[in-house]
Amino acid sequence: MNVKKVVTYVAVAFVIFYLFTQPAGAAAAVKGLFGSVSTGAERLSQFFTSLVSS
After folding, report:
1. In which element (H, E) is residue 10 found?
2. Three-state SS for 54?
3. In the structure, what pLDDT confidence band is assigned to residue 39 with cuts at 50, 70 and 90?
4. Which residues 6+ apart lie within 8 Å of 19 measured at CB?
5. Could you report the per-residue pLDDT of 19-38, keeping only the tens digit for each?
6. What is the 3-state secondary structure (H, E, C) of 41-52?
7. Which pLDDT value is given to residue 16?
8. What SS3 state is found at 22?
9. Nearest to residue 15, comparing CAs of 31, 2, 3, 26?
């Protein structure tokens, strides 16, 4: 078996295990991830807005 496939299966298994054993922690992690992505997108938007308006 390919090492990349094994690592992928182990990672997916860990995520599923984490979701079932710590649902509140998993929800907080996802919320934090989306919050970070949202903040990054907002900052990029502000950068390009200020770049174009100058």
Report:
1. helix 3-21
2. coil
3. very high
4. 26
5. 899 999 989 988 999 999 99
6. HHHHHHHHHHHH
7. 92
8. coil
9. 26
- Sign, CA dihedral 25-27-31-34, equals positive
User: What is the rounded radius of gyration, in angstroms, for the C-alpha atoms of the chain?
Assistant: 18
What is the residue type of 15?
Answer: V
What is the reported pLDDT for 54? Answer: 67
- Please tell me what DSSP assigns to residue 1: -
- Measured N-to-C along each axis, helices 3-21 and 23-53 cross at an angle, to the nearest 10 degrees, of 110
Whether the full predicted model's pTM is greater than 0.70, yes or no, is no
Q: Residue written as tokens 């907002």? A: 42
